[in-house]
Amino acid sequence: QVQLVESGGGLVQAGGSLRLSCAASGRTFGSYGMGWFRQAPGKERDFVAAINWSGATRNYADSVKGRFTISRDNAKSTVYLQMSSLKPEDTAVYYCVTGSTSYASSRMNEFEYWGQGTQVTVSS
User: Fold this and answer.
1) Which of 73, 93, 112, 120 shows the smallest number of beta carbons within 10 Å?
2) Taking the mean position of all CA atoms in its chain, how far away is CA 44?
3) What is the pLDDT of residue 65?
4) Which residues in 27-38 are b (16+ Cβ under 10 Å) and which e?
5) Region of 8 on the Ramachandran plot (φ > 0 left; ψ -120 to 50 alpha; else beta)
6) What number of other Cβ atoms are within 10 A of residue 70's Cβ?
7) Span 100-118, average pLDDT
8) Over the chain, what is the mean pLDDT?
9) What is the phi/psi pair of residue 35, to 5°?
10) How many other C-beta atoms can be found within 10 angstroms of the C-beta atom of residue 66?
11) Contact partners, residue 42, CB within 8 Å, separation at least 6
12) 6 with 95: CB under 8 angstroms?
């Protein structure tokens, strides 16, 4: 059973930074792509970032390009999301995701495993 456990969320002022972590277990971590989605109150879940199995390929939503960086440590079975220059509109629950593919997908339906989510709140 694949399990994803996020950590690192919290309250930060606009312009600040946070780093989210996601620890994975239940299968060979280094064979699969990983990603992050987010859901703001009253809105649908949106793609944020994804990374392929090796870390060589990364994919970002336009809204976070240049501000967020996704990375992974296959030895630790962990994926990270470094968030900088945070804006109030980044406030959301952030979900770590993985699926059965090895590439950096942005398609929600390609991720069948989801973490419980971690709240990020950016105050103005």
Assistant:
1) 112
2) 16
3) 98
4) eebeebbbbbbb
5) left
6) 22
7) 96
8) 97
9) -155, 175
10) 9
11) none
12) yes
